[in-house]
Amino acid sequence: MTCIEARGLGKSFGTTVALNGVNLEVPEGRIVGLIGPNGAGKTTALHAIVGLTSYEGELRVLGREPSSQRDQLMNDVSFIADVAVLPRWIQVSEALDYMEGVHPRFNRAKAEGFLGKTTIARGRRVKELSKGMVAQLHLALVMAIDAKLLVLDEPTLGLDILYRKQFYDALIADYFDRNRTILVATHQVAEIQNVLTDVLFLDRGRIVFACSMDQLESRFAELTVNPEKAAAAKALKPIDERQVLGRSVLLFDGANRQELGTLGEVRTPSVEDLFVWMVGRGAGQARGVAA
Amino acid sequence: MNSASNVMNQSPAAAEVMPPAAVPWGRQMYWCARRELWESRSIYIAPLAAGALALVSCLVSVARLPERMRSAGALDLAQQLERVEGPYDMAGLLIMGATFLVALFYSLDALYGERRDRSILFWKSLPVSDTTTVLAKASIPMLVLPALTFVVSMVVQTIVLLATRAVLAGSGVDAQAAWDHFSFWHASWMLLYHLIALHGLGYSPFYAWLLLVGAWARRLPILWATLPPIAIGVFEKVAFDTSYFAELLMGQLGGGSHHATKVAGSMSMDSLSTPPPGEFLTNPGLWLSLVVAAVFLALAIRLRRQRGPI
User: Fold this and answer.
1) Within a domain: residue A210?
2) Contact B305 A70 (CB under 8 A)
3) Is the pLDDT confidence value at A68 over 60?
4) Domain identity same for A80 and A122
5) Which of A84, A97, A104 sits opposite B22 (nearest CB)?
6) What is the ipTM of this complex?
């Protein structure tokens, strides 16, 4: 079943185009990384998906139209905007009471269980918690919801590396299963690369690249070329070249790995490298045009 | 088919109770209103504090009552009654004044504060409609605060009343004639009626306007709430040399325009600016105010749907 389906999704703020005809299809049971530089339109796209903003074009999330059916949609969709949105005055126990009171799919015992693994006391107010604890609290609240889609917008922004790692570990170990879909927007690509099943690159309001991690591994290869075979390697038409410690590192799209293996060391490029190549190249072209 | 469904029923996953598809609307309203009390504790602290102040000041006044009654032994019944009732009325007015101020500031901040601190993104990530949220917020000044005012006033007034009787009886002052004319139940009923008619229904357009401004303004909602009405009044005065708009607002604040002048003159509980129920309910002004309040609330709901954090 398709979880998110967008056709020509657009949104402008005055003369600024935030989303420019985005087409998107996210099937159920995936963990999709929406990756883009600052100002690429990630937050706008996520807000459109959870019904927080109006948009042009066609958008269906779990078969519903987010802009007009936000409240029904939110029975099945959870959303973490960023760590700062939990109201500062609320007590942990009040947050649990409220969620239990208004959310049909909130399981209080589960939330208490997640909180039990942390040092967060029930009587504390959000403003008395550290940033990391607020993120833990929000995640505990959200993971206790039996939702079909979880949307995360830079959920670990401003957290230290230990909290960031815990956050994603908990998400994968205690929450994700094949019936759920997770859409996470971030520009800290490296940390989530190994939990993703798919990546989407968003740049200046457009999806510039969409690929599953499996495809990515079979399609792209990075070759650290032996100096004496540099010419032979370049003949295979790499899409990018950079210098690392005096050696050429070449990026190939659709090349034969066995053939590359004879020329040097082959590995799968990181999502980050691919992102920098694709989006950085676009930015370079844009600069070229402007110049 | 049967065997298959039996198997499913026996599996541990199916044994878990399926969560209901939606929470009943009344329960959501209850929790949304309760949430407001958690956030704005002044909703109950202010009436309680005003009640405590009223109680203490009334008790001091009551302690001095026999002396005052004696010093003016030749008072006629009306004056006696005024001395007995005086502190009693003041207590009610003090509590009402405090809750009215709380209601105004609460309404203005209710839909503005959540946008300013970005918590709207959290509230909107839950399956609570904008209509439920706005109505729950509107219920605080229109229902909860009048109800709290009534309860706190009743408690304070009961204590003051008992203390008055005890002090007067103990001091041997004969105020029986005054008591005969003073009806606790009548005064309580008048208070309740006044609170529903004026504070709940009559002021609803003001509260709804403040909620609307809070949902709309990006900055300084207090200026947006007050300057446009002032501007309209000034424009009318300069352009046409009339002041219908200002009179309309003042009349609404006083509880129906034709009672406005009466209120300004006397602020005693009994004549407290509220017309008899029959006249009140058939007054087109009331229904017009309710329509205006409903329009403002509908616009506030619409704005909350569209607006995000600021």
Assistant:
1) no
2) yes
3) yes
4) yes
5) A104
6) 0.89
